[in-house]
Amino acid sequence: MVEINAMYLVGRAKIYRDEAQRGIELESQGDPQRALLVWKSLKRACEAELESYDGQDDNYAHFLHTMADYLKNNSEVMSGLEMIRVSSRDYLKIDSSK
């Protein structure tokens, strides 16, 4: 069960990373409205996941808190997307070193 949960968390982090990358690409291709939609979607997903997260993995909880705090206090789309991408990569590096 623990292994399944760990695989799920890695999968979630990869989704955050990939979607943030997609938003960055949309912005750089001149489509700021769609990038904003991706940013809002990631923000809502992070807030909802943090609300329901049971906290079994401290690193993942820290990952969610970092994103949620940043997104709550900063409305700049590109910096938010970049922060999500970097935070996701950092979590995935920590997880792969376990």
Quickly give the structural class: mainly alpha
**If helices are DSSP runs of H or I spanning 4 or more residues, what is the number of helices?**
4
* Spatial extent as radius of gyration: 13 Å
Main β sheet profile: none
Uncertain residue segments = none
Beta-strand level of the residues, as a percent range? under 5%
The mean pLDDT is 91
The rough form would be described as globular
Question: Helix coverage percent of residues?
Answer: over 70%
What is the chain-wise order of helices and strands? Answer: HHHH
Intertermini distance: 17 Å
**Strand tally, please?**
0
What's this, in brief?
The protein is mainly alpha-helical.
Q: Could you describe the 3D structure shown?
A:
It is a single chain. The chain has helices spanning 2-28, 32-52, 58-73, 77-96. By secondary structure, it is an all-alpha fold. The two termini are 17 Å apart.
Task: Sum up the structure in keywords.
98 residues, mainly alpha, 4 helices, globular
Please write out the topology.
Elements: H1 2-28, H2 32-52, H3 58-73, H4 77-96
Helix pairs in contact: 1-2, 1-4, 2-3, 3-4
